[in-house]
Amino acid sequence: MSSKVNHLRLLSRWKSTVQHSKQSCERNVRCLSTSTYRQPPPPPPRLPPGVSSSAIINAPKKIKTYPPPPSTRAKCPEPLVTFAVSQISLLDPRGSRTRLFSKTNPDSARVGDILLVRFKSGDPFAGVCINIRRRGIDTSILLRAQLTRIGTELWVKVYSPTVVGIEVVQRAEKRARRARLYYMRKPKHDRGNLSGTVDAYIRTRNLLGRGSVGNSQGRGATAGKTGGTKS
User: Fold this and answer.
1) pLDDT digits (tens, 9 = 90+) for 48-72
2) Tens digits of per-residue pLDDT, 192-224?
């Protein structure tokens, strides 16, 4: 009895193994049938005689190069200076204000002169020029005057769009030995109220038939020469 049972067990095992092998074969057939078809690569081109495939593989590849972009340094070596010059030419097209405060101009305004500045809005301001800052487009002057017996100082941007014109009311008798006349802040050297000098200049200018001096060429220095009165 025992021998028959062992034979049956062996047959059952073989049956399970055969079934497992059949299932695996069906899976493999299904995978092969549903796999994507890839075309074979094209054959390599025929090489000319005397040229080996290793020489073509090891040959250096040609890389496409592009010319460098144009250099901004070569086109504009000093961009800040170029920008300042363009702005000055825009704000002062005739160059009258540039000549009025230029060091090379013998008739330029200097420290110690009485200047009259007219604005687009508000009253004009007249005062003694005690400092001139030449900074290109940021050139400015410091004027000092007395308003209601109180010393008042005003920085004026020469190229500001709000400035209509700058006139020289009176020239200094002597050339100042200093670049900044800050000592005029003391009561001993203060010029005091300048309304009388400015009114006399305006009356003389009206008698000569000259209108307001704006950006016209060379009028700022000429008006100060002929129209000013010395106290």
Assistant:
1) 777 666 666 676 778 888 898 888 8
2) 899 999 999 999 989 887 544 443 333 344 333
Cα angle vertex 35, ends 31, 38, to 5°? 150
Helix/strand/coil for 154: strand
Beta bridge partners of 155: 142
Q: Distance of CA 88 to CAs 20, 82, 137, 230, Å?
A: 96, 10, 6, 33
Angle between helices 195-208 and 219-227 (to 10 degrees): 100
- Mean pLDDT (the chain) is 79
* Nearest alpha-carbon partner for 118 in 11, 28, 40, 223: 223
pTM metric for this prediction: 0.60
Reading across the β-sheet that carries 140-147, which strands appear in turn? 150-157, 140-147, 125-133, 114-119, 163-170
CA-closest candidate to residue 126, choices 17, 223, 24, 27: 223
Max intra-chain CA distance, the chain: 154
**What CA dihedral angle connects 189, 150, 119 and 139, to 10 degrees?**
50
